[in-house]
Amino acid sequence: MTMTTTSDHVLIFDTTLRDGEQSPGATMTHDEKLEIAEMLDDMGVDIIEAGFPIASEGDFAAVREIAKRSKQSVICGLSRANFKDIDRCAEAVRHAAKPRIHTFIGTSPLHRDIPNLTKDAMADLIHETVTHARNLTDDVQWSAMDATRTEHDYLCRVIEIAIKAGATTINIPDTVGYTAPRESADLIHMLIEKVPGADEVTFATHCHNDLGMATANSLAAVEAGARQIECTINGLGERAGNTALEEVVMALKVRHDIMPWNTRVDTKKIMNISRRVAQVSGFAVQYNKAIVGKNAFAHESGIHQDGMLKNAETFEIMRPEDVGLSETSLVLGKHSGRAALRDRLNQLGFDVGDNQLKDVFVRFKELADRKKEVFDDDLIALMRDGTDAANDRIQVKFLRVICGTEAPQSADLTLEVDGVDHQKTATGDGPVDATFNAIQQLFPHDARLQLYQVHAVTEGTDAQATVSVRMEENGKIVTGQSSDTDTVVASAKAYVNALNNLLVRREKTKPESV
Ligand code: KIV
Ligand code: ZN
């Protein structure tokens, strides 16, 4: 996968499942990671960084399974600069048709200080570890963490060592989101000019968005000769996140006239994966986010609407269909049949079998009875919401709340736990708090609620609310989600969904008996 500076192709390296998932609270389950990896592979991402195999048994298992299931994409795992990390990584990716080991070390003065390594000692370590990785696989990526704050002469020296030791991709991370476009370009340009062997490897750019310049910095690096952009869906990632995949890919497509580089990404798949990543990570996409925000294609001001009606190109630089948004999102109503529902779900990227369709159709009818118009976003919420709830150990059977100006607000709740109904009335500071107190009393647990978030799925007072809940138990994080036209019901179901996920996780992490 070596790309020279003259190549017109830019490799897209997605790290949603590693750098994105590393963002506090964005933890995904094993199955969610497999699903996202499959979507990335299907949409034409060149390299998927599937995780950090040494970090935990869970990370290792996810990377290994993603490697086994991979089709087109290279599957990459991350490892620090030591043999144990690298061996674990090699073991995790080895079943991929195209495996890659990614090893890194912080090269800036601040990073050299922490392990108290001299420049020479670090250079030796880079030589040893890259050589070791290269003996295990032909495709080795080496990253100089905090490259943008590393002395240029030292950066050149260690990159030369990594190339000589067999690295095929050299990644130049802007770890703390500190650089700016011109500096980003100059750095790549200088490295390609000065480092012996630079023309035989691919240079990669890996930008964080602390100053909001990640996309601009990545594209500037490409202008200077980088041929791999590292990015995440929705820009997910620690702090202000990473470069957003959808932004760089669409920028290269829309402004091909001035940035004549191609990617393999099928841009029509962007919206679906964006929604799914938002859902499983619990990190909602801001309304005005470029490309995938709810308002990205909304032209509401009078002057814009007038222009749009006359000619869409007046204000639209790309078509909604190009990113997978359908022209009209008003789809079904209560008279719509099963075939229409299946057809629409297929268009939204859901492949539903007969049994699943039966279940979704029942819930669709219930929703259509309560809501006049069922939009695409409603259908997506429906699909994501409890499709396998029938197997859950805890179910919400009945909920009635009393709320309003007179305190205390209360919730009368019946939960079915392992097939047995339990009822409780609890009070709280508002109906959601009362409901959560009732759940806590009916199913006592020590997990701590870390996040409670509500989003309207569509417009209008009859819109469904999607509630996301994140909980932590012994350092492990689980999330739950649910949608309903009643916000309190959605909240109760999201909490219960998180508890069911917690039970599954407890079961999986139980020590095996010998
Ligand atoms: O931001 C960074 O430096 C990283 C490295 C591990 C590549 O994510
Ligand atoms: Zn990073």
TrEMBL record:
Residues 395-514 are annotated as: Regulatory domain. One of its GO terms (molecular function) is 2-isopropylmalate synthase activity. Its cofactor is Mn(2+). GO terms for biological process: L-leucine biosynthetic process. Pathway: Amino-acid biosynthesis; L-leucine biosynthesis; L-leucine from 3-methyl-2-oxobutanoate: step 1/4. It comes from the Bacteria. Its EC number is 2.3.3.13. Belongs to the alpha-IPM synthase/homocitrate synthase family. LeuA type 1 subfamily. Homodimer. This is 2-isopropylmalate synthase. It comes from Aliiroseovarius sediminilitoris.
